[in-house]
Amino acid sequence: MNIKVEHKELSYQRTSRYDNTRIFQRNFLKNLTSCSIEKDLDRQYLEKLGNVSLQPIFILGLHRSGTSILYKTLGLTGCFNLVTAYHIIKYSELLYNRINSKEEKSKEELTNFFKTQSQADRGIDRLEITPNFPEEYGFILTHRNYPKKLTSRNLPIFIELCKKIQFITDQNKPILLKNPLDFPNFMYIKKVFPNAKFIFIHRNPIYVTNSFIRAMQMLFKNKNPYTTLLSQTYEKIFGNPLLLYASRIYYSPDLPIGLTQIIHTSVRNTSYFLKNINSLPKQDYVNIRYEDLCKEPETNISKIMGFLKLKTKSEVDYNNLIKPRKLELNKEVERMQDYIYKKMKPYFSYCGYTSNDSQVTI
Q1: Which of 86, 138, 160, 223 is most buried by its number of CB atoms within 10 A?
Q2: Per-residue pLDDT for 25 more than 80?
Q3: pLDDT digits (tens, 9 = 90+) for 276-333
Q4: C-alpha distances in angstroms, 211 versus 62, 124, 133, 215, 358?
Q5: Does residue 175 sit within a domain?
Q6: Residue 19 domain-assigned?
Q7: Domain range enclosing 322
């Protein structure tokens, strides 16, 4: 078997424009580091969070099941406070920036950084990147060396994040959150947040697997500046040639290692969902399918808003926001198609999928 794995970084011609970009990037990252936990500009203002209440709503589903586009779309209704890229990257100065009228300047710095990196979207899909891009709260947990899913250890930092966001935005709105790693963790979330509501989004597992393996291959092919800002683990991998080489081999299309792991993780997570979903009160959750969201976005968003008893405050242009396109399976996923169906047949049945459904993506 011939395994072809790229393991060299892209080379660039040294031009003055490139040098200026590198200088800007180094200074930006240096300033970002200066606002780390050790130099927490928000510490002096944390007492202001004492009376902030939370009404959390969680979007949960498998990785690459459509949580991001659903999160972004619901955010555009004007009914929710969201976790954004700005909140993650500038976490230790959110209160400081708002109280001292430095928020817009800080967001402008982020915008300029994205422009210097030619980072128009996330790289793994077509979702546009801005400081206000809705993001996973799990990134703020890993920054503190906590697990990316909610546990008793990281619950205080999660609550602090949510209260900060509520304080600097609109405290009359519920906070909308998403983190795929908490899909097999919703019973714990319901235990610690009895008033929590859940929006579960489902997607044909064959195409979830396809999207996931593609995303991993793209992320490890070339360094993604945006992901570097969000994930310290990702940055460390690109700083270590051996780890980078191993990551590329792990997700190589010529080996089934990463692909098999993705499938088995999906089996475990969907089994948890099927085992526990009936333990949630029916009035506390709603199910939608990614495929239905693509075909009839307005209908499905209305379904969610009805479940939450909310009325849209801003008009959403669904035709320009959600533009489905045909999706082809990777060869390695196509070979595993029957295996995925066999391993996850109960979940396929629950969601109304078959093993040979065609798929569109956004």
Answers
A1: 138
A2: no
A3: 999 999 999 999 999 999 999 999 999 999 999 999 999 888 877 877 667 789 999 9
A4: 11, 9, 20, 6, 14
A5: yes
A6: no
A7: 29-354
The pLDDT score that the predictor gives to residue 361 is 56
Rounded to whole angstroms, how far apart are CA atoms 231 and 181? Answer: 15
- With a pLDDT cut of 70, the percent of the chain lying above it is 84
Report the alpha-carbon distance of residue 143 to residue 37 in Å, rounded: 9
User: How far lies 229's CA from each of 32, 211, 235, in Å?
Assistant: 9, 22, 8
Q: DSSP 3-state assignment of 257?
A: helix
Q: Is residue 87 part of a domain?
A: yes
Nearest to 221 by CA among 1, 2, 10, 79: 10
Phi-psi region of 198 (alpha: psi -120 to 50; beta: other; left: phi over 0): beta
In a domain, 13, yes or no: no
The domain that holds 134 is classified in CATH as 3.40.50.300
Evaluated on CA atoms 188, 283, 204, 230, the torsion sign reads negative
Average pLDDT over the chain reads 87
Residue 60 near residue 300, CB atoms below 8 Å: no
Report the pLDDT value the prediction gives residue 116, as an integer from 0 to 100: 79
d(CA 97, CA 104): 8
For the whole model, what pTM was predicted? Answer: 0.86
Angle between helical axes of 257-276 and 205-221 (0-180°, round to 10)? 140
pLDDT at 229 over 50: yes
- 178's enclosing H/E stretch is strand 175-178
| The residue to which tokens 């992901």 are assigned | 227
Tokens of 328: 């082809």
Query: Residues near 298 by Cβ (< 8 Å), separated by ≥ 6?
Result: 316, 318
Domains in the chain, number: 1
